[in-house]
C-alpha cells in the first residue's frame, strides 16, 4: 500500500503546495514513493485545530498507510493578546495542552506514524508593521519574535516529553544572517528560500524516521526494470 505523509497546520501549511512551497517540494521528492496530503487551515490556532482534527482527517481511514504527520501550529497562538490579532491568541499553557491533544488523537488514529512537530518560525517585526493586519493603525506588530520564541520552545518541549521529532524552525532560521527578508516575505510567511529550508528540515526528520527516499520502495516498477518482451510478468503482484 502506497504510504501517505500528512501535513497538518495553519496558513504556512495551507499555502505549501503553491509554487516553490515546501509541501510541493515534498510531493515532488516523494512522487514515486508516497502521497503527500495537505490539511492546512489559514488563521487557525491549536485551540481550533484540536477541535477539528478528527474531522480534518475523516476522509483518511484509520487503516490507511500513514507513514508520517507534520503538526505545524503556533504562529497564530503566539499573536499578542492586546494587539490586532488577539482573537487568535492562545495562552502558552493551553498551547502545550492543545499540542498534546492533537498528537494523542493522531497517535490513536495511526499508531505507527512518525509525528513531527514544527515550531512557529521567527517573526520579523518590521516586516509585520509593513503588512498591517485587521486595520491595526497603532504602528505596532501584532506578533513579536520574543513571543514566537516562547511558543517554539514549548513546542520542542512537548515533542521531547512525548518522544517525538521536532523541527525548531524558529532557531534554525535565525542561524542565517539576513533571515528576516531571506526567509520571510511579510515578517511571518515564507519566501521560496524559506520554503526550501523547511522542506530540507522535513526531509531530514523523515530520514531520521527511516522514511528516506531510499528506504521507501518505488510505486510500480521503474521503466528501466520493465522487460518490453514480457511486460505482463513485470506487473504481476507478488
Automatic annotation (TrEMBL):
<dbReference type="InterPro" id="IPR013830">
    <property type="entry name" value="SGNH_hydro"/>
</dbReference>
<dbReference type="Pfam" id="PF13472">
    <property type="entry name" value="Lipase_GDSL_2"/>
</dbReference>
<dbReference type="InterPro" id="IPR036514">
    <property type="entry name" value="SGNH_hydro_sf"/>
</dbReference>
<comment type="similarity">
    <text>Belongs to the 'GDSL' lipolytic enzyme family.</text>
</comment>
<protein>
    <recommendedName>
        <fullName>SGNH hydrolase-type esterase domain-containing protein</fullName>
    </recommendedName>
</protein>
<dbReference type="GO" id="GO:0016787">
    <property type="term" value="F:hydrolase activity"/>
</dbReference>
<dbReference type="InterPro" id="IPR045136">
    <property type="entry name" value="Iah1-like"/>
</dbReference>
<feature type="domain" description="SGNH hydrolase-type esterase">
    <location>
        <begin position="7"/>
        <end position="197"/>
    </location>
</feature>
<keyword id="KW-0378">Hydrolase</keyword>
Amino acid at each position: 500500500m502506497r504510504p501517505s505523509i500528512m501535513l497538518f497546520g495553519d496558513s504556512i501549511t495551507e499555502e505549501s503546495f503553491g509554487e516553490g512551497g515546501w509541501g510541493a517540494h515534498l510531493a515532488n521528492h516523494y512522487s514515486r514513493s508516497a502521497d503527500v496530503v495537505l490539511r492546512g487551515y489559514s488563521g487557525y490556532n491549536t485551540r481550533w485545530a484540536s477541535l477539528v482534527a478528527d474531522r480534518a482527517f475523516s476522509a483518511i481511514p484509520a487503516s490507511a498507510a500513514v507513514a508520517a504527520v507534520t503538526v505545524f501550529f503556533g504562529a497564530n497562538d503566539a499573536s499578542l493578546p492586546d494587539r490586532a490579532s488577539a482573537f487568535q491568541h492562545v495562552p502558552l499553557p493551553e498551547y502545550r495542552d492543545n499540542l498534546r491533544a492533537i498528537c494523542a488523537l493522531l497517535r490513536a488514529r495511526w499508531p505507527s506514524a512518525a509525528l513531527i512537530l514544527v515550531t512557529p518560525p521567527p517573526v520579523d517585526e518590521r516586516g509585520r508593521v509593513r503588512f498591517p493586519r485587521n486595520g491595526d493603525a497603532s504602528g505596532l506588530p501584532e506578533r513579536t519574535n520574543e513571543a514566537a520564541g516562547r511558543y517554539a520552545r514549548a513546542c520542542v518541549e512537548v515533542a521531547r516529553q512525548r518522544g517525538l521529532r521536532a523541527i525548531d524552525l524558529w532557531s534554525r532560521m535565525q542561524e542565517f544572517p539576513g533571515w528576516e527578508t531571506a526567509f520571510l516575505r511579510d515578517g511571518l510567511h515564507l519566501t521560496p528560500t524559506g520554503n526550501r529550508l523547511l522542506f530540507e528540515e522535513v526531509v531530514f526528520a523523515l530520514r531520521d524516521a527511516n522514511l528516506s527516499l531510499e528506504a521507501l520502495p518505488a510505486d510500480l516498477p521503474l521503466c528501466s526494470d520493465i522487460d518490453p518482451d514480457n511486460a505482463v510478468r513485470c506487473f504481476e503482484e507478488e
